[in-house]
Amino acid sequence: MRSSTLTLLVAMLVAGGVAPAAVAQNSSGTVRAILQSGPDVGQRAPDFSLPWANRDGVGPIESPYQLASDRGKTVVVAFYPRDFTKGCTAQMRTFAEQYDSLFGPDVVLVAISTDSVETHGRFAKSLGLPYRLLSDPEQRVSKQYASKDPEGYNRRTVYVVGPDGRVKFRNMKFNALDPKDYSELRQAVRNSTRES
Amino acid sequence: MRGWIIIALTTALLVGSAPDLAAQESGIAVGTRAPVVAVNDLDGKPVDLGQYIGKRPVFLEFWATWCEQCEALLPRLRAAQAAYGSQVEFFGVNVTVNQSPERVRKYLQEHEPGFRPLYDDQGTSIRAFQVPATSYVVILDRTGKVAYTGSGGSQEFDGVLRKVIRN
Fold first, then answer.
1. Torsion, Cα of A62, A65, A71, A76 (10° steps)
2. Which residues of chain A make contact with B134, given a CB cutoff of 8 A?
3. Interface predicted TM-score (ipTM) over 0.85
């Protein structure tokens, strides 16, 4: 009985796309769960390949963006809910306008949502985004990176992948309006580029 | 029996965690007590919102100079201050993302929103109020409870302001 229960428990967690990192109970008896998965700091970032668009239009279908092709560089992978929404517009515009200060010329930034490449193209053009927006409508990649929310959109998360292909930093609840989150990201990118 | 308790508990944890993930863009809940925080002004001096929260109605708008919805909201904001400015504290909390104090000062001079400007370069209030977007408005009643939240350029908050003044 006990082993079947455990098997079922594990199956439920796997089906939910999460792995339990910790389960805690506070003094008032409220059960809190910290459920996170996706590559943690120090782990290898799963490779992926997705179609893209930027301010110049939709990228060639035969040349999707592949994370592994930027091995040797620091890559920032940002998951976000939707094009043309307020929070995402604030975040993407800030990334674009503060690119040099946040990332620098040698860093690659890619942002991933469920929008189509056509929508990405319009969004990128409207904001003049110099970086690629990747299309992941089936949330295959966002699931790998624990950035899939239960409602079919992406959660707002940010990963910094170092030149060695390993995760150097991640923020699993990036707030598009919080200056502290941008400061921490800036520092993480600097630390990663310094290592290379 | 024990096994099923574990399963039920795990299910509750999984289901219970979902709203947190989904709610990351949703903001502070109406009816909850507002957090009392200090936020810097444009000169970097902290302003303790505890001087106002829980003592009289408070209106907070989280804004940025680049926010089109915030600009669209300005006429309603000015009208509300003209009508209720003596009974409600109006604050405009600049989110500081992609902003500078100089840029904000210039905007205030040109647009005269009327509210008392704050510059949350530490993100204290943004985290405390779980601000999901610029143009986000939070109205607190005189007991410090959240009476209204909303965002966008066509928000209607006149009725809520009348109610928090009356009660």
1. 170
2. 86, 90, 177
3. no
Residues of A in contact with B5 (CB under 8 A): none
**A1 interfaces chain B, CB cutoff of 8 Å:** yes
Distances (CA, A) of B50 to B54, B125, B162: 7, 12, 22
| CB spacing of B6 vs A18 below 8 angstroms | no
Higher local confidence (pLDDT), A150 or A155: A155
User: Is A88 a residue of the active site?
Assistant: yes
A101 touches B at CB < 8 Å: no
Residues of chain B above pLDDT 90, percent: 81
Q: Are the beta carbons of B13 and A5 separated by less than 8 Å? A: no
According to DSSP, the β-strands at A75-79 and A108-113 are parallel
The secondary element (H helix, E strand) that includes residue B41 is none
Tokens 């053009």, located at residue:
A125
> What chain A residue is nearest to B119 in terms of C-alpha separation?
A179
Inter-chain CB pairs, A–B, below 8 Å: 102
**Which tokens hold the place of B73?**
């909201």
Instruction: Dump pLDDT digits (tens) for B14-49.
Output: 333 323 333 345 789 999 999 999 999 999 999 999
pTM for this structure?
Answer: 0.76
C-alpha–C-alpha distance, residues B94 and B117, integer Å: 7
**Residue numbers in B near A175 (CB within 8 A):** 123, 126-127, 131
3-class DSSP assignment, residue A155 = coil
Per-residue pLDDT tens digits for A166-195: 999 999 999 999 999 999 999 999 999 987
Per residue in A89-107, pLDDT tens? 999 999 999 999 999 999 9
Interface of A with B in 39-78 (CB under 8 A): none
What own/partner pairs with CB < 8 Å and gap ≥ 24 does A132-140 have? A132/A52, A132/A53, A132/A54, A132/A59, A132/A65, A133/A52, A133/A53, A133/A54, A133/A83, A133/A92, A134/A50, A134/A51, A134/A52, A134/A65, A134/A110, A135/A50, A135/A51, A135/A52, A135/A53, A136/A50, A136/A112, A139/A114, A140/A48
User: Minimal Cα–Cα distance from B18 to chain A, Å?
Assistant: 7
Q: How far apart are the CA of B145 and the nearest CA of chain A, in angstroms?
A: 23
